[in-house]
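Re: the request from the purification team.
They wanted to know what the chain is likely to look like in 3D before they choose a buffer screen. I agreed to run a prediction and write the result into the notebook, where they can find it.
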Amino acid sequence: MAQNLSPYKLQPPKNLSALHKTSVELGYPDFYPPKPGQDEDLMTEQHVQQGFSGALFVDAESFSAQDMILDEIRDPKGLGNLGEFMTDIMKRKHEINTFEESSPYTVPQIVWVPVEDRDEWLRRLAGNSPLKELAENVPRVVEGTHLLELVTQHRVPLARATWFTKIVGINLINSRTGHQETSHNATQEYTKNWNSTFHTFIKNQSREYDPDNILLAKWQFDDGLLDQRILRSTLENLDQADHLNTVIWLWFVQQFLEEFQHIVCECEVITIAGNTLDTPKPKARYCRQDVEEYATSTPDMFVFPVCWNTYKDLLRCVFVEDNSLKTDTVIPKNTKRQMERYYELIRARNEVFDKEKPDMIGKRNAQELQQSRIIEILDKVGFHTDYQKIAAEYFRIDSKFPMLEREVSTHIYWLCYWAVTKYRAGDYRVYSVSTILDIWKSSVTNAEERLQRQTTIQNSLMDFLDIYPLGCNGICEEDVAGLFGELIRNGHFSHQRYLQRLVARGDVLHERRVTEDTSDEKEYESMVMMIKDKLPYLFSRTEKLDSPTVDNPVSDMHLALNFHSETTEFMQNVTKFCQIKVIQTWLLPQVKTFVQNTPIGPHNWHNPTQPGSSLLNARQLSTIVKVIELAKDYNSLLDLLLWVLENSTEKCLFQSIIDTLKRHEVVWDAMGKSEQVLDALMKKNDQLRDMRQTETCIVKYLINFTHDYVNAKKGKLEQDLQSQMKSQLSQAVSHHYTRFEGYNSMKQFLSRVRASNIESRLFQSDGDGIYKIFESYINIIIQYSHNYADENYTEGRIVIGIFGDLLVDICDRTTDELDFVFEKWIKCLSHVDEDNIFGNENILLLYFFVMLVVRHLVCMKIIIEHLCDKNLKILVEKLSNQRQMDPKEVIECKNLVKLLRLLLLQDGDNLSIQLPLCTTEIQVLKSHCETLSHHNDFIVIASTIFQKLAIIECLIDSKDQLIDVLIQLRIDFSKIEWFRQLCVINSETVYDRFVKGKRLLSNKEVEKRILNIVQTALGDDVAKSSQTASVYIKYLRTILSQISLWNIQKNRIEFWLCMDQIMLIDSTIPRSSSTSTIKDEDDIIANFGEFPKNESLKNAVIDWLWEELILKGEIDCGFLSNMIKGIMEDVSIELFEKGLCILKKCTELISDIEEIFRSLLLTLSVDKKINFCDALLSQIKKIQDDFPYDSSSIKFGFESHDNVYVSSIISRVKLLVLGAHVLTSRVTEVITQTNPAIVRQIPEYALIEKLFVTLVNLLCDPRIHQNGGGFAHFDLILDLVSFLLDEMGKNARAVIVAELKNHKIDNIIPAIWSNRIKRVLPLIFVQETIGEGEKKHKIDPWKMIEGLGEDDDLTSSPNDLSWYNSKVYPRPNKRLKRVNVNNSNSTII
């Protein structure tokens, strides 16, 4: 049965209060109830058929009021009227908010009363007794802290307590005035004492946390009983307070917030707040609140460049990051955004005056900021990288705001670009991409979300290939192929889906290939044959082997040598497909079948090689590693190394395996295989320990490896190392002696070898003993080499190798390597002609030094620094003293060059050496060079070496054959791979060490040769071209047009090198008459042609940079400033002088031109900077004369010529900022050290006086401030004035301010900014009058701002807030009510 529906009754909204309690008709806010008879309820035919639609207020709206307002605002006259209207409002507010002085009253007299009557009087004071009655008998028995304690004890209201304090104080002042002091002095003295008394009272009461004490202090400060001394004392106590006392002192500071904003000690508040962020949370939280209130109420006080660099991190923490302090208060988004805006405003205004202004490249817009963040994160990837942390930071894995899909795609794109760009180096990057993507994909556990991320990766990678298909657009094809091969291998990219996409778009036709390309097959067969030629015993087995093959030192020497250059080039240039096919489908399977398959029987039971063990020897393993490294197939390389490590007990293989693993550590990290490597090494070490065959190289590598897994077992590893050091040496020594006996040329030295002190059963690792052994071996090698006649050095290499094995066995028993012993031997080395060991051709001795490095006995850096550099220094000193080298010294120089070629270039095939190094030796030496290249001290040593070689090249006879040797070394060094990679990764350090650090040389030809090394390494070919202005301009245009955030460092160095070369082109070297002229080498060999004496080359290039590039806006001034920053001083001077000419010639300047001058001024002298300021002031004066001010024009708005005037003036003011630091420091120094009577005669003083007058006049210029519309220009000039006054110090500032008062300055400042002018620049106002009657006196406004009186003492009263146009704010809540004066209970205030 259907129920009757109840009629709908309109109910008021729930949880919503009515607008008025009694007036119900007002309804509820934002709620409009229906009314009876309204149009919506009328059931007309039209409403039923068409529905109700409200009628428009205007039937046909033909125009918008917005257009009327917009046109009025755009009209300069209307804008001027609006400015005048706002100025009039500010003037009226100023009149309303001005305080009026209160009328004086008769001061009651104090009388002596008993203690009981005093306490009764205080109880009446705390009650409701009228003050008129209490004033009749004010007790005199209390004063000082006792008075404050009694007032607090009786809980006297604040107003009555202040009244009582005033009466007591005035009576004491009057009593002292009648005796020996004037009224003013007595008031000063009492105020000072009362401040000290109140400070002591507050300090004693701070632990009780009584708010009434603070309110009493505030009340008495407002009434003039306390002055700024109490504020300074409060800051001192706040700085020293512990976490218990901090709350009361911080509350005190908050109560006096407005007063702190108007005195100099405001900076102390910021200082203390900054120092308390690391203290307990309550103190830090309150300090943070103070800083927030200061910055939001008075941002100007934070425009203080002197303190900005110290406290900018504090402000960023408070306003932006919000991480250091966790509070329960949730800051609204709008408030947080406003705080961030305040911080950016303060930061921008401060950094204008920062001498070391941070580079804004990469931070100017959101896109640059994102890209620079990406580059910064990816460039952290390198040795021992935490990839979990990198991936979390890169993709914001742990953030509450995950990335959107578009943002993820952008990050994946830049990740791939980083892996293949030529502006970064390192084969590990390809594997880093796969690892980072894998971490990001695996950071979610949900299978559906993980699948979605895989789809995002696939789509992003396909988009990347659309931009860089197979290495187009400046990306190497092989790099892209290697990257995507690794991504396919790890399941991040589907090649099949990519082909389907290309087919669907019509980019690829789906058709069967008609003919097969045989080029890959031919390359495959050729590469296989090359490998077989180097590994004959591996692929042509004629008999079953029980142990690794022992190479014949003579007949198999060609197998140990490195591949020919043609073979190496062929293997590198074959397709990636061919390389992978050869290695993975043929080479590695063949290697893994090359094992011991003969069962153990009576004929081979003594063979240590077990069935299934690898039969590779060290030479074969090094050759295979070389092939795989050429193909950059590091997955196969790691597979090979771990397999050989597990399946071999051949002692000679372990050092080669460790060297290779160490050489590619960064790749194993990028692949995520470091722990796998450590596990394999630990397992092998345990196996060898059980066999009592511990290998020292494995143990040392594990000990030096920082990993939690290794650290847990470090004790056991150190025990293994100690056991190896205590092992017997006699058997190893005897074995090496037996090897010596096989060579007839060594038999005569066997007795001397055996005489070495190593025949004991347990070798004692005594330093002196090792030194004697080392010295003895070198002497034997020197004498042996004199009798050696084999041009191929076959036997000599073997003998040196035996000495190396012998030294390795000795050093395995010591705690240190031979570095100290080698340094000691070098120090004892004689350079007398007959004793100079390098005075004769001795290739074997050089090979011995190479062997020390290859066997890890002596660091390469030690040999280069203490042997090569020391001997070259002696030769340079002799040549510098106008003496030529004798024949033995020429041979010594050649020997040192040969040693450098062997160590740095691994170039034993050179015609001057003819001692080719084997593959293993080259690999170890390259590994040493790549490791040392990451250390700045090694770069310094290398640059010093080549500087000395360049000096020798310039100073020796032009016909000497040594010149060709030196030239060839310089050219080959600049082309070596590890040095070229160093120039890409760390180009600025290379430039600083090689070029910039050598510009102190007077020999320009030496500079040219050093410059050429870096130019060639960076691939700079401009030096090979004809030296004309058009060539250099074209080259510079190419550099500057290709600038991006990825290559800005490299392009900057190339720009510097080009400008350095231009400066050196016309240079000549003064030569003494006793030395021959310097010979310029062949163009092709030295990359330096004969420089034509074109005097206009330098000027033409610099003119083009300024007039065509900068002034026409063809380049971003920010980027060009970044390029110029740090350039050589001589280049800066030339660019600066041309820039000055541009400033004089041009009125309007391009935006941000000051950034270019900022970079140029960095390296210039102080005098040039001061002259720069003088020139700018003269230009401002000229602009003011050319554009005179017409007062009538302001009524009709600003004309176009006014815009030109403002633009020209402001651009010069921005440039003046650059010299402000130097000018203020020079003036301060001059005024401090000079007699004040003659200070006006000093040019710097006159200059800064002229500067202040000019700036103050500009502040008053209506065209600058535009009646409030030109706030940016006004802020800049005002900040500059404030900065100059702050930087000069009190004494210098006092002199300047005194002089400025003599100048007539028109005060035409908008009322809206008048209080800001008074705060930072009160010098344009008359002196203030303080006090009445005898106390009436004047005080300088600037001293008033600084809190100083006439005698440099603190003022006796607080700052008059009306002087700052302050608003009236309410007093504390506990105040007396005013009643009718006719009432007997009237109150006296």
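For the purification team: The first strand starts at residue 110 and ends at 111.
Please add any questions underneath this entry.
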